[in-house]
Design a protein that fits this description.
- There is one protein chain.
- The protein has helices at 5-13, 18-24, 27-42, 55-62, 70-79, 105-124, 161-166, 172-175, 190-207, 227-235, 253-266, and strands spanning 131-133, 151-153.
- With 271 residues, it is mostly helical.
- The chain folds into two domains: 5-42, no CATH class; 55-266, no CATH class.
- The protein has a two-stranded antiparallel ribbon with strand order 1-2.
- The radius of gyration is 23 Å and the shape is globular.
Length: 271
Protein backbone atom coordinates (compact mmCIF):
# COMPACT_ATOMS: atom_id res chain seq x y z
CA UNK A 1 0.00 0.00 0.00
CA UNK A 2 1.39 3.42 -0.98
CA UNK A 3 1.66 6.06 1.74
CA UNK A 4 -0.83 8.95 1.91
CA UNK A 5 0.17 12.61 1.48
CA UNK A 6 -0.51 13.20 5.18
CA UNK A 7 1.79 10.36 6.23
CA UNK A 8 4.56 11.58 3.92
CA UNK A 9 4.27 15.13 5.20
CA UNK A 10 4.36 13.95 8.80
CA UNK A 11 7.30 11.69 8.09
CA UNK A 12 9.26 14.50 6.48
CA UNK A 13 8.46 17.06 9.15
CA UNK A 14 9.39 14.66 11.97
CA UNK A 15 13.14 13.88 11.89
CA UNK A 16 12.66 10.86 14.13
CA UNK A 17 10.47 9.13 11.54
CA UNK A 18 12.03 10.41 8.32
CA UNK A 19 13.33 6.96 7.56
CA UNK A 20 9.74 5.96 6.76
CA UNK A 21 9.60 8.35 3.82
CA UNK A 22 13.02 7.21 2.60
CA UNK A 23 11.73 3.63 2.32
CA UNK A 24 9.18 4.71 -0.33
CA UNK A 25 10.75 7.71 -2.10
CA UNK A 26 14.14 8.27 -3.72
CA UNK A 27 16.34 11.01 -2.31
CA UNK A 28 15.83 13.50 -5.17
CA UNK A 29 12.03 13.19 -4.85
CA UNK A 30 12.28 13.93 -1.14
CA UNK A 31 14.27 17.07 -1.97
CA UNK A 32 11.52 18.29 -4.29
CA UNK A 33 8.89 17.47 -1.67
CA UNK A 34 10.84 19.44 0.94
CA UNK A 35 10.96 22.50 -1.32
CA UNK A 36 7.18 22.36 -1.85
CA UNK A 37 6.52 22.06 1.86
CA UNK A 38 8.81 24.96 2.76
CA UNK A 39 7.28 27.15 0.04
CA UNK A 40 3.80 26.37 1.29
CA UNK A 41 4.73 27.26 4.85
CA UNK A 42 6.44 30.52 3.82
CA UNK A 43 3.43 31.62 1.76
CA UNK A 44 1.45 32.06 4.98
CA UNK A 45 4.00 34.47 6.48
CA UNK A 46 3.16 38.16 6.44
CA UNK A 47 5.17 40.24 4.01
CA UNK A 48 6.27 43.55 5.46
CA UNK A 49 8.44 46.39 4.19
CA UNK A 50 9.61 49.72 5.59
CA UNK A 51 7.43 52.77 5.16
CA UNK A 52 8.77 55.95 3.55
CA UNK A 53 10.01 58.68 5.90
CA UNK A 54 7.64 61.43 6.98
CA UNK A 55 8.81 65.05 6.66
CA UNK A 56 9.51 65.23 10.39
CA UNK A 57 11.60 62.05 10.17
CA UNK A 58 13.67 63.54 7.34
CA UNK A 59 14.13 66.74 9.35
CA UNK A 60 15.26 64.86 12.44
CA UNK A 61 17.91 63.10 10.38
CA UNK A 62 19.09 66.45 9.02
CA UNK A 63 19.27 67.93 12.54
CA UNK A 64 21.01 64.91 14.01
CA UNK A 65 18.03 63.84 16.10
CA UNK A 66 16.72 60.34 16.74
CA UNK A 67 14.62 59.31 13.72
CA UNK A 68 11.84 56.79 13.29
CA UNK A 69 13.01 53.22 13.82
CA UNK A 70 12.20 50.92 10.84
CA UNK A 71 11.57 48.14 13.37
CA UNK A 72 8.49 50.09 14.42
CA UNK A 73 7.10 49.64 10.90
CA UNK A 74 7.29 45.88 11.33
CA UNK A 75 5.57 46.07 14.72
CA UNK A 76 2.67 48.03 13.24
CA UNK A 77 2.33 45.91 10.12
CA UNK A 78 2.24 42.66 12.07
CA UNK A 79 -0.31 44.04 14.55
CA UNK A 80 -2.86 44.98 11.89
CA UNK A 81 -6.08 42.94 11.90
CA UNK A 82 -7.27 41.61 8.54
CA UNK A 83 -10.19 44.05 8.55
CA UNK A 84 -7.80 46.99 8.27
CA UNK A 85 -6.61 45.55 4.96
CA UNK A 86 -10.12 45.14 3.60
CA UNK A 87 -12.98 47.15 2.13
CA UNK A 88 -14.21 47.75 5.69
CA UNK A 89 -11.70 50.60 5.98
CA UNK A 90 -13.69 53.88 5.76
CA UNK A 91 -13.69 55.81 2.50
CA UNK A 92 -11.85 58.84 3.81
CA UNK A 93 -8.66 56.77 3.74
CA UNK A 94 -8.50 57.89 0.11
CA UNK A 95 -7.73 61.41 1.29
CA UNK A 96 -4.25 60.09 2.13
CA UNK A 97 -4.03 57.01 -0.10
CA UNK A 98 -6.22 57.27 -3.23
CA UNK A 99 -5.47 53.72 -4.42
CA UNK A 100 -5.87 52.02 -1.04
CA UNK A 101 -8.63 49.65 -2.17
CA UNK A 102 -6.68 48.63 -5.29
CA UNK A 103 -3.42 47.84 -3.52
CA UNK A 104 -2.15 44.48 -2.36
CA UNK A 105 -1.97 43.61 1.33
CA UNK A 106 1.74 44.34 1.59
CA UNK A 107 1.29 47.88 0.30
CA UNK A 108 -1.71 48.38 2.60
CA UNK A 109 0.38 47.33 5.57
CA UNK A 110 3.08 49.77 4.52
CA UNK A 111 0.52 52.56 4.25
CA UNK A 112 -0.67 51.95 7.80
CA UNK A 113 2.92 51.92 9.05
CA UNK A 114 3.37 55.32 7.40
CA UNK A 115 0.06 56.52 8.85
CA UNK A 116 1.12 55.68 12.40
CA UNK A 117 4.55 57.20 11.82
CA UNK A 118 2.79 60.44 10.82
CA UNK A 119 0.52 60.19 13.85
CA UNK A 120 3.51 59.67 16.15
CA UNK A 121 5.20 62.63 14.50
CA UNK A 122 2.25 64.91 15.21
CA UNK A 123 1.62 63.51 18.69
CA UNK A 124 5.11 63.08 20.07
CA UNK A 125 7.67 64.31 17.56
CA UNK A 126 8.63 60.61 17.06
CA UNK A 127 10.05 60.56 20.60
CA UNK A 128 8.90 57.40 22.46
CA UNK A 129 9.61 59.00 25.86
CA UNK A 130 7.30 61.99 25.32
CA UNK A 131 5.01 62.71 28.28
CA UNK A 132 2.44 65.51 28.24
CA UNK A 133 0.28 66.94 31.03
CA UNK A 134 -2.87 68.37 29.45
CA UNK A 135 -4.96 71.06 31.10
CA UNK A 136 -7.71 71.39 28.48
CA UNK A 137 -11.02 70.19 29.98
CA UNK A 138 -11.80 67.87 27.05
CA UNK A 139 -8.44 66.12 27.44
CA UNK A 140 -7.66 66.43 31.14
CA UNK A 141 -9.91 63.57 32.19
CA UNK A 142 -9.12 61.35 35.15
CA UNK A 143 -7.30 58.12 34.36
CA UNK A 144 -9.28 55.38 36.11
CA UNK A 145 -6.15 53.26 36.49
CA UNK A 146 -3.61 55.79 37.80
CA UNK A 147 -6.02 58.27 39.35
CA UNK A 148 -4.15 61.13 37.65
CA UNK A 149 -5.66 63.55 35.15
CA UNK A 150 -4.56 64.76 31.74
CA UNK A 151 -1.42 62.69 31.27
CA UNK A 152 -0.64 61.04 27.93
CA UNK A 153 2.54 59.18 27.10
CA UNK A 154 4.66 57.54 24.43
CA UNK A 155 4.77 57.68 20.65
CA UNK A 156 0.98 57.87 20.29
CA UNK A 157 0.25 59.71 23.56
CA UNK A 158 -1.81 57.02 25.27
CA UNK A 159 -3.00 56.44 28.83
CA UNK A 160 -3.00 53.56 31.28
CA UNK A 161 -6.80 53.51 31.09
CA UNK A 162 -6.37 52.17 27.56
CA UNK A 163 -5.25 48.89 29.09
CA UNK A 164 -8.78 48.39 30.40
CA UNK A 165 -10.59 49.85 27.41
CA UNK A 166 -8.67 48.18 24.59
CA UNK A 167 -6.63 45.40 26.19
CA UNK A 168 -3.30 47.18 25.76
CA UNK A 169 -0.14 45.74 27.28
CA UNK A 170 0.43 48.41 29.96
CA UNK A 171 1.29 47.62 33.58
CA UNK A 172 0.76 50.56 35.93
CA UNK A 173 1.55 48.56 39.07
CA UNK A 174 5.05 47.85 37.78
CA UNK A 175 5.55 51.21 36.11
CA UNK A 176 4.67 53.28 39.16
CA UNK A 177 7.92 52.12 40.80
CA UNK A 178 10.02 53.50 37.92
CA UNK A 179 11.03 57.05 37.08
CA UNK A 180 8.52 58.89 34.87
CA UNK A 181 10.78 58.93 31.80
CA UNK A 182 12.28 55.47 32.29
CA UNK A 183 12.10 53.74 28.86
CA UNK A 184 11.48 50.46 30.67
CA UNK A 185 7.98 51.64 31.59
CA UNK A 186 5.48 49.54 29.66
CA UNK A 187 3.56 52.50 28.24
CA UNK A 188 6.74 54.08 26.83
CA UNK A 189 7.94 50.94 25.09
CA UNK A 190 7.33 51.48 21.35
CA UNK A 191 5.98 47.97 20.76
CA UNK A 192 3.33 48.26 23.48
CA UNK A 193 2.41 51.81 22.53
CA UNK A 194 2.11 51.17 18.80
CA UNK A 195 0.20 47.91 19.16
CA UNK A 196 -2.22 49.70 21.47
CA UNK A 197 -2.64 52.44 18.88
CA UNK A 198 -3.57 49.88 16.24
CA UNK A 199 -6.22 48.46 18.58
CA UNK A 200 -7.65 51.90 19.27
CA UNK A 201 -7.88 52.82 15.59
CA UNK A 202 -9.36 49.43 14.67
CA UNK A 203 -12.00 49.95 17.36
CA UNK A 204 -12.88 53.31 15.83
CA UNK A 205 -12.98 52.47 12.12
CA UNK A 206 -13.87 48.76 12.12
CA UNK A 207 -15.89 48.05 15.28
CA UNK A 208 -17.76 51.36 15.38
CA UNK A 209 -17.63 52.07 11.63
CA UNK A 210 -16.47 55.65 12.11
CA UNK A 211 -14.32 57.52 9.58
CA UNK A 212 -10.59 58.02 10.08
CA UNK A 213 -11.16 61.71 10.67
CA UNK A 214 -13.89 61.61 13.28
CA UNK A 215 -14.86 64.41 15.66
CA UNK A 216 -15.33 61.74 18.33
CA UNK A 217 -12.07 59.93 17.58
CA UNK A 218 -9.42 59.14 20.18
CA UNK A 219 -6.78 61.56 18.85
CA UNK A 220 -7.45 65.26 18.32
CA UNK A 221 -4.83 65.08 15.57
CA UNK A 222 -7.37 63.07 13.55
CA UNK A 223 -10.16 65.60 14.00
CA UNK A 224 -10.67 68.04 11.14
CA UNK A 225 -10.36 71.69 12.11
CA UNK A 226 -8.06 71.09 15.08
CA UNK A 227 -4.62 72.80 14.98
CA UNK A 228 -2.97 69.44 15.64
CA UNK A 229 -4.70 67.97 12.59
CA UNK A 230 -2.82 70.42 10.39
CA UNK A 231 0.44 69.13 11.85
CA UNK A 232 -0.63 65.55 11.11
CA UNK A 233 -1.74 66.40 7.56
CA UNK A 234 1.69 67.86 6.80
CA UNK A 235 3.22 64.51 7.76
CA UNK A 236 0.94 62.60 5.39
CA UNK A 237 2.47 64.04 2.22
CA UNK A 238 4.95 61.24 1.49
CA UNK A 239 2.94 57.98 1.70
CA UNK A 240 4.03 54.82 -0.16
CA UNK A 241 4.21 55.32 -3.93
CA UNK A 242 1.51 52.68 -4.39
CA UNK A 243 -0.99 55.14 -2.88
CA UNK A 244 -0.52 57.42 -5.92
CA UNK A 245 -1.08 60.56 -3.86
CA UNK A 246 -0.72 63.61 -6.12
CA UNK A 247 1.85 66.19 -5.08
CA UNK A 248 -0.08 69.37 -4.28
CA UNK A 249 2.22 71.53 -2.23
CA UNK A 250 5.64 71.71 -0.63
CA UNK A 251 6.25 70.87 3.03
CA UNK A 252 6.16 73.68 5.57
CA UNK A 253 9.65 73.22 6.98
CA UNK A 254 9.17 75.74 9.79
CA UNK A 255 6.12 73.84 11.06
CA UNK A 256 8.03 70.56 10.94
CA UNK A 257 10.98 72.00 12.85
CA UNK A 258 8.58 73.51 15.41
CA UNK A 259 7.03 70.07 15.97
CA UNK A 260 10.45 68.56 16.64
CA UNK A 261 11.30 71.28 19.15
CA UNK A 262 7.95 70.88 20.91
CA UNK A 263 8.43 67.13 21.04
CA UNK A 264 11.81 67.57 22.71
CA UNK A 265 10.36 69.86 25.37
CA UNK A 266 7.41 67.54 26.00
CA UNK A 267 9.79 64.63 26.58
CA UNK A 268 11.20 66.31 29.68
CA UNK A 269 9.99 64.75 32.94
CA UNK A 270 6.86 66.36 34.34
CA UNK A 271 7.20 68.12 37.65
Amino acid sequence: MRPSWHSLRSAYMNPLSSYVARRWLPLHTLAVLAAILVTGLDSHAQTTKPAPPTPIDKKKVELGGTPWNPEWDRIIEQALPAEMLSSQVPRDVRRFCPRFYDMGETDKRTFWAYFFQALAGAEAGLNPKTRVHHTEPEVATRDEVTGMSGRTEGLLQLTYADQKRYGCDFNWQADRTLKPNDPARSILQPKNNLECGVKILANQIIVHHKPLLSSSGYWSTLQLGRPSYRVFAKQMTNPPAACALPVKSSIDRSETTKTIQEGASQAKPSQ
